[in-house]
Specification:
With about 140 residues, this protein is mostly helical. It contains seven helices and two strands; from the N terminus they run ααααααββα. It has one domain. A two-stranded antiparallel ribbon has the order 1-2.
Length: about 140
Amino acid sequence: MDILAELKPLSNSDPNADYQAGSCNIGPAEIGRRRAGHIGLLATVLLAALLWASGAASRLRLALALPASMMAMGYLQAYFRFCAGFGAAGVYNFGALGTRQTVTDREAQSRDRRKALFVGIASLTSGAGLAVVAAVRPFR
């Protein structure tokens, strides 16, 4: 089993593709619901502007990690067509919002949990990385 293959987005362009363990667990309606990326981007930009305008100390700029992680989480979930929360909970949805199907196969659940962990770690790492860059670079 190639772990890198599990981490790549699906290569087919069909947004209605069915559930694929460790690869795709949300359909178009759920993907559209992943607005956390946009909200996180807006919050990151607004907080950075506030910190810059106030001349905040470097350590205070680390606060950018939270909205930047939220931004990364939303965008990564949409990109991979994979909801980390669904993966951790063992469910998927390709239908109307609010409907979920349960993943019953143990191997599929394990692959979904690995992908959910990857998306979570990638999001936190991205947010922390942005915050560290903001903290070490002078605003002026």
